[in-house]
Amino acid sequence: MIDKDVHSHHISQQFNVELDDVKTHLLEMGGLVEQQVRKAISSLVDADSDKAEKVRSDDSDINDMEVAIDEECMRILARRQPAASDLRLVIAISKSVIDLERIGDEAGKIALQAIQLAESGESPRGYKEIRHIGNHVGFMVRDALDAFARLDIDMALAVAKEDKLVDEEYGSAVRSLITYMMEDPRSISQMLNVLWALRSLERVGDHARNIAEQVIYLVKGTNVRHFGITQMTAEVMTPEKRGQ
Amino acid sequence: MIDKDVHSHHISQQFNVELDDVKTHLLEMGGLVEQQVRKAISSLVDADSDKAEKVRSDDSDINDMEVAIDEECMRILARRQPAASDLRLVIAISKSVIDLERIGDEAGKIALQAIQLAESGESPRGYKEIRHIGNHVGFMVRDALDAFARLDIDMALAVAKEDKLVDEEYGSAVRSLITYMMEDPRSISQMLNVLWALRSLERVGDHARNIAEQVIYLVKGTNVRHFGITQMTAEVMTPEKRGQ
Fold first, then answer.
1. Closest by Cβ to B78, choosing from A74, A87, A189
2. Looking at chain B from residue 151 to 180, which residues have their Cβ under 8 Å from any Cβ of chain A?
3. Which of A57, A197, A243, B75 has the most CB atoms at less than 10 Å from its CB?
4. Is B244 inside a domain boundary?
């Protein structure tokens, strides 16, 4: 199912263009944010301070995009007074942009841990976990954005399911790192840098899930924020209430 | 400056009632969230698992309130098609409600640390810091909500300033706890429970600041999300653009 299906009922061609534009800007911002996460992870794993500094300084571009998209949404709300699925699209964008900006913040926090680790010497453990969970949430962000681009609720549901797996992987990584910390307390400080970075990655997964939930809201008109996976699956399976 | 000043231009009395209602619901939710944070802190400090379990189970009430207020906002947007300061009010509420819900989540996470600490035995350090930073962010949440209730931008600015202090207090608490952990590695696991709880408190401060920023946006029409304190102060000092 593609965007045009939902928005084909517009009388105003200009309004269609505005909606397409703001959605395109969201996806562009998403692409940048996804890159920031990947660069932050590689800066940590490769102990590359320069790359980490770049991630931190580029965060202001993401902040600017957030403000610009938010203004676009407000302008559409004020001038076009959208209803039904158009209103949902604008609201879903204005909420997703907050999550994207927060993912950008988490990338910045991971980069900060990377800088500290590059200074203090590497951690004896945890890089495998950073790489693994980092990859996992990186794909989640990309899939959540793809789901938004195509209004693909099955893909959105898959992202929500992945978030549960990430939470489990995170819990297990933290437990094993804590065990190791107790065995080798000299490395506590570096291990904590890794733990903070892992926690940031887990948050990235949460935000990807939030965006996926907006896709389901947009298509189905149902707020699934506090649904469990079973309830969310049932919602995705029920016939759509088009143009409501 | 009170709410009526901004919203006195309505023709529809019923619309005024709807706006007042949704704002009241936000503030009620805020009151509950503030309580959850305070209870979570005292459950941790007093090693009171029952209280901590109650905080966790009561989180669903907060989630329900989030969904209900969000629906109210969407209904107003769809039916009333608000403009100018009314539109800003609805958008500010629909964003603040997300922050309140996340504060509720952080209270739940603190309660989880409380439960783990009650099981594993108390941490040798960190309670003073939890109490101190917990009090600080508790007041910030209350002040952010008061600022929203009264549309008081000076108070909102004060909350943003407090957030900077909390970040400093948090950084210093983390550093001293890490030093202690290295000296006494047997208590790593409990110290980490305290560190996670402190991190949650620091997040609560961030969310209170976000709500304060919405108050400035609401009154001044300016998005101050990525302003530093100096720039934000300048914005608050400039004359208001009423009813824009």
1. A87
2. 178
3. A197
4. no
A55 vs A41: CA distance, rounded Å: 10
CATH code where residue B80 lies: 1.20.58.220
Residues of chain B found within 8 Å of residue A182, distances taken between Cβ atoms: 185-186, 188-189
Helices (H), chain A: 3-7, 13-45, 49-80, 84-120, 127-150, 153-183, 188-220, 229-237
The CB-side HSE value for B3 (13 A sphere, CA atoms) comes to 17
Size of interface A-B (CB pairs under 8 A): 70
Taking CB atoms and an 8 Å cutoff, what residues of chain B touch A71? 223
User: Over chain A, what is the mean pLDDT?
Assistant: 92
Cβ(A129)–Cβ(A177) below 8 Å: yes
pLDDT given for residue A7 in this prediction = 53
Residue A7 lies in a domain: no
Residue A27 lies in a domain: yes
pLDDT confidence of residue B240: 64
In a domain, B242, yes or no: no
pLDDT in tens, A101-146: 999 999 999 999 999 999 999 999 999 999 999 999 999 999 999 9
When pLDDT is cut at 50, 70 and 90, the band that residue B11 belongs to is low
DSSP H helical segments within chain B, as ranges? 3-7, 13-45, 49-80, 84-120, 127-150, 153-183, 188-220, 229-237
Q: How many Cα neighbours within 13 Å face the side chain of B178?
A: 16
Interface list for B 195-214 with A (CB within 8 A): 195, 199
Would you say A29 and A62 are in contact if contact means Cβ atoms under 8 Å apart? Answer: yes
Q: How does DSSP classify residue A216?
A: H
Each residue's pLDDT tens digit, B93-128: 999 999 999 999 999 999 999 999 999 999 999 999
Contacts A60 to B, Cβ<8 Å: 226
CB atoms within 10 A of CB B179: 12
**CB contacts, 8 Å: A87 with chain B:** 74, 77-78
At B198, the pLDDT band (50, 70, 90 cuts) reads very high
Look at residue A185 and give its three-state secondary structure: helix
Which residues form the domain of B207? 11-237
For residue range B199-235, list pLDDT tens digits in order. 999 999 999 999 999 999 999 999 998 999 999 999 9
Which structure tokens are listed for B202? 């620091």
Nearest by CB: A223 against B60, B70, B78: B70
Hey, are the CB atoms on A188 and B192 less than 8 Å from each other? no
Number of domains in chain A: 1
Q: Is the pLDDT of residue B161 over 80?
A: yes
